[in-house]
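#onboarding

Welcome to the new folks! Below is a worked example of what a typical request in this channel looks like: someone posts a single protein sequence, and someone else replies with the predicted structure as tokens. Don't worry about understanding the tokens yet, we'll cover that in week two.

Example request:
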Amino acid sequence: MVRTTLFKTLPLLTVAVLFAFQPLQKWDSKFVKANPDGSLQYIPDEKGNILPDFSRVGYYRGDKTIPVIPVVKTISPGNGDNQEAIIQAAINEVAAMPLDANGFRGTLLLQKGTYNIPGTIRINASGIILRGEGNDTRLVATGKGQRTLINVSGSGNVQEVQGTRTAITDTYVPTGAKSFRVQSAAGYKAGDNIILFRPGTEAWIKDLKMDQIEERDGTKQWIPKEYDFSFERIITKVEGNTITIDNPVVMAMEPRYGGGAIFKYTFNNRINHVGIEQLYCESAYSSDTAEDHGWNAIMFNKIENGWITNVTSRYFGYACVNIGYQAKWITVDHCTSLDPKSQITGSRRYSFNNDGQQNLVMNCRATEGRHDYVTGAKVCGPNVFYNCTAENTHADIGPHHRWAMGTLYDNIVTDGEINIQDRGNWGSGHGWSGVTQILWNCTAKRAAVQSPWACGKNYCIGLKGGQYDGRFKGRPNGEWEGQNKEGLQPPSLYMAQVKASRKQ
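Example response:
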């Protein structure tokens, strides 16, 4: 009897073993396919929109690796709370040194030990690297006061070069496009820095229904003049009146919503070539819900071509890294945000916040955050969050409010939610959080990915996790594909785009 049962069971065991060793079934997205040679084929929709190329973000748009800059000054911890003055004096000394041929002055090395910082360390000159010796170099934001521990910023603003503005003449410039026709390309050449300008209009806001946000105390309807978007780009080619740019259009342009234009610009006193490396930053705090203490570990604004690498923050109320809207070409790599201390409510615990454009956050980790990988209002992409994790989250990942454009969330793993949705009257009237927002091969407890009433789509491709309605039922669904289906190819859209762009 035993023998008979065994022989009846063997075929089933054989089938189970064979099934277990079958190769993973790979599948391609209907929006982009990888060719055998590593190039990518983008499949346009009926209007010609494609997934944008996100490969040219971060430090020098990915064209250069982050360099190791020689040490020109070394300091060690002192006693008491005088380290802020010691560090600031050393930074000022390096700032007075000449720039080398590559735009660097040198590295200030903070040797291991504890540096008590009652205020803010400021870098406002180009070419300075602030480097520690890993977690053994501890910068502690002591005492009280919501503040940034390390603030990196130039000054000034974008200024239009008068007489250079020219209108885009195409009847529709699709998402993903890198070229378009203008009224006159006279005076433009490859290498010019330009603003790709898209105006906010009443028609656009009306079609988005952002003039109809349900009123509550403090709700603010969207106002057209507050939604003029300026995308920084570089011209790569001029042929007749056709302009080609380095980074793609991330929100379609069409005459019924004001069309678009380009113009040259300057940004005097924006700094560059600043790096923060190998530091452990900590804030003093009095309780788990205390808020009168360090708020940001690191803040970057009015800077281009900079980086933050191998930094750990702990106990700050807002962010490990906070990138302002006038920062571009910034890479944040292998950074960790741990155990923020604050109330768990709005405007707190944005572990890695990016309001700038053409920035890259990768290989990062966050715990106990609310919005761990997040963008704010009117964020002009492209931007990328790649290969990052979030644990013990208290809110959601994604574009937070008031229209971010062109963000890729690629291989993000969270035990919370990732949402791209109409947030309605949350805050003071968050409304639609964004367009051309792409989740690629992410993992989450659940996600709401919706497309706005007008002006484009959002995408959820290869999500491992549940789908739900988000705040509102009845909003248009985004483009969902391959939910809970293993084997998406390429596994990372960003890495595939980087590989493909370097082959061109």
